[in-house]
Structures are given as structure tokens and as C-alpha cells.
Fold this sequence. Notes:
It is built from eight helices and five strands. It is of the alpha/beta class. Strands 2-1-3-4-5 form a five-stranded mixed beta sheet. α6 (about 105-110) links the parallel β4 (about 95) and β5.
Amino acid sequence: MDKFMKAAIEEAEKGVEEGGIPIGSVLVHKDRIIGRGHNRRVQSGSVVLHGEMDALENAGRQSCSVYRECVLYTTLSPCAMCTGGVLLYKIPKVVIGENQTLMGEEELLRSRGVVVEVLQEPSCIQIMATFTKQHPELWNEDTGK
């Protein structure tokens, strides 16, 4: 498994350990993680701290030239909000662990020139299957259902 997807999965596992939703993400610039995060909506009482948004936040303020050389790794297909962050900062590539649990805005990303790679990583699929079965109310809240 790719070391960056492995780091995103480790972030997802932190989310579970903290009582939250198991979605993790890392932002990579020139083969180095500059931001990592996981869904912290439950833990922080936040409306916006999805895994991707947390990774962007934890990367801190970067110049546009940095974002344009980044790859965002995320364990689950990005929702409309997280897709907006990718498009706003012109991140050119997103690597997705799985999109079976949720098909996010992949077509929008592709239509705007973002390279989208979907791995269907078994560990990403499993962590979400377990979580959605055990905590459907949190999952529905996180996806706006």
C-alpha cells in the first residue's frame, strides 16, 4: 500500500479511537506530508471538520504555488464541501481510498481537470462498513441525511 494512503488510514483510525467518524486525509507536497487530519465533527462539535478540511487546516496557510503541486489523499470519496476546497486551491490530484460507501463529487473534480484515482482499498471499505453499521445516526448526520 502507498505510504500516503497508509497515513490517511491511520488518521481515519484516530477518528474511530476518538469516538468520531473514520475518514482520514493527508495533503502531500513534493513527497512530504504537509497536513494531516481526520473527521473531527463529533469530537469538536464542528460542522466543517471533515477529514480533508482538517488536513487542509492543519497544513496551515500555504502559497497558491504549493497547493498547485499537492496531492490530497483521502480514505473516502470527497463530498461537495471538500471538493470545493480542492477546486478553490487548485489541488491537481486526489487519491481516494474508496467510493463504495459514498460516491462524492468525483465527476466535478474530473470536469475541472483534477486527476482522480480511486483505489478501492479493502481496509478503507472495511472501516466504513463497520462504522456505518454500528453508527448509522452519525453517518447520516455527517452526510446530511
